[in-house]
Amino acid sequence: MISVARRELAGYFATPVAYVFIVIFLVMTGALTFTLGNFFARGQADLNPFFGFVPWLFLFLVPALTMRLWAEERRLGTIELLLTLPIAQWQAVVGKFLAAWAFCGIALMLTFPLWLTVNYLGEPDNGVILAGYAGCLLVAGAYLALGAAISALTKNQVVAFVLAVAGCFIFAAAGSPVVTNFLSTNIPQLADLARAVSVADRFSGFTRGVVSARDVVFFASFIGFWLFVNNVVLDHRKAD
Q: Taking a C-beta distance cutoff of 8 angstroms, is the pair 87, 4 a contact?
């Protein structure tokens, strides 16, 4: 599993994909935090504007990472070689996921100038900031697991990207007032379910410094479920 993760992580940096992703992510987070986030106008030394935009940036950038995880292997025909190596299939699934997750972690770490900025300008609660970063990493993991499962369904990377964006958007927006108000009026039974599966709602607690066991279990279960689906899809493809 670790060997697969190392291979995949090295593969990211062997192509321009990694550098393009990181540059776009850093530029977008900086631009949105300091402009739309009204970083200076707020007069508060915290990273709430940054954390407010990260889940929505990941909504588009994470599928760009996952679209090639399995779709590219299937298109090139190398998936058969990978799955015949002396490793269990689930180890390949988890290894690829860990590589993509580690890459997202590296991208988040490179936003440290924002943390330095708020500490220079004031005296922020660094515990809250640390919790926010932990939440960002869990959101990235949730999107990655979902995107990887979708990537295993198709050989076409563009299709994998579009479906992953759509899937991530559903779970991100499920708890928004627009969705919950509509469901409360028309399908009340689904309103509570939408709030329960909303990635954005679960993430909001982390941005306040509240690391709830319930939220951690949700993200762990979400990631585990979609990795399981990924493994099942690969089993089905092998049977075909």
A: yes
Nearest to 22 by CA among 137, 134, 108, 129: 108
H runs (alpha helix) in 35-88: 48-66, 71-76, 79-83
Residues 82/84/90/96 CA torsion (nearest 10 deg): -10
CA dihedral 147, 148, 152, 155 (to 10 degrees): 70
For 139-177, how does the pLDDT look when each residue is reduced to its tens digit (9 = 90+)? 999 999 999 999 888 888 888 899 999 999 988 888 777
The sign one gets for the Cα dihedral 71, 76, 77, 78 is: negative
Region of poorest pLDDT, from 15-29, 58-72, 175-189: 175-189
Tell me, what amino acid is at 180? T
SS3 content of the chain, % helix, strand, coil (to 5): 80, 0, 20
Rounded to two decimals, the pTM is 0.90
